[in-house]
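Slide 14.
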Amino acid sequence: MFVKIRNRLTILYTSVMAVFLLSFVIMSYFMLSTTIYQDRIKEIKNINYEIMKHRNELIVIPNKDDHGEDDDEELDLRKKNIYFYYLVSNSGQFMGGAEMNYDPVAREQILKKASGWIPNKDEVRFEEIKTRDGGKYLALSGLPVYNLVGGFEGVMYTGIDLTEQHHVLQVYMVISIILSIIFLILSAFIGHYLAGKAMVPIMQSFARQREFVADASHELRTPLSVLQSSLEVIEAEEENHLNDFSRQVVVDMKDEVGRMSKLVGDLLTLARADSGTLELNREAFDLRMVADQVVRTLQPIVGKKEQTFSYDGDENIPVFADRERITQLLYILLDNAMKYTPEKGIITLGIEASAKGIQLVVKDNGVGMTQQQAERIFDRFYRVDKGRSREMGGTGLGLSIANWIVTAHGGTIQVISTVGKGSTFKISLPIQDKEHSLQ
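Slide 15: predicted structure.
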């Protein structure tokens, strides 16, 4: 139990740290990218208006000369951090412009991405293009061009190179993710360690409480047994001397002592189960024979309530498990079904063997319960109808013990219930063992 709680605390701590680290990486990346790009965005906006003043001069794109030297126009672009500016007509025809490095591959990609785009005022796009040298990350903007009479002639597109800045951000993102993973792993180990430290006083307190319950239950068994025997002696020897009222008092006391004895026994069972001192004594036996024995024991009670009991399953079910605990499990489930099933109701026990183990189903058409009640049905001392449970001798520990028995055998138990239609308990027990089972 404490291992599960410690693991849950570790997962919770690690999840919180993961959310924090993720938020930090995203926010820092956003702030850094905004800081890096903001000045360049302002720069490209200013360049747009400057180029528009000289748009009539943009007719020919200068290329490298025969000696491979950059011409004056290209040097001027480098000084202004401009990667290109193109004038494109309203029909999509390239009219002229200039570029830092003449690259037909890059120019084709830029014109393709800008095709049909008429930028709004101060609108900026970020595009990644392929070039002869690899690739570029550009910030694109532009302004529409109108003639003297106000007619739309085309668009002047402008771009600046943000490849280095983009690369810096990518490296930062990769480093941040790697560091976050490292810190997350460290936080998981630290969280597991701190959760263990935090659980120490809780474990000690629980251990003292568990010891108290076990010791108290053990000590109470003897006086309750003595009290039960004394009441039986009084009832047997003084029956003729007791009036009706006294006789009823003795009967009521015997019922209460019996109920207390059962409660103490259940508490002792759960206390030993929690401490790990209650071990399973596995043996090979036929589960069908055990089920028949439990049914015969409960048959008088079933007959009084005129309930109908049916069995649906295999005839021979060899298993290797704790016979006493499996018998107790069947008794608890069937007794619970009988208590909450009205007169002339139907109770069905189904047991089937499969390659995965034993599938055990106890179904009734009783009062049923809500989904919220079904979720708490295995909690200790929880009772759906406390008044009826006490009247019928219930303590709220039976299903808790049943849950422990199933868990101790490595199985699972679940309940499906509908108010007014009954409940179905489904148990899966991997207790078959070919090597030890009956042949």
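Speaker note: The chain has a mean pLDDT of 79.
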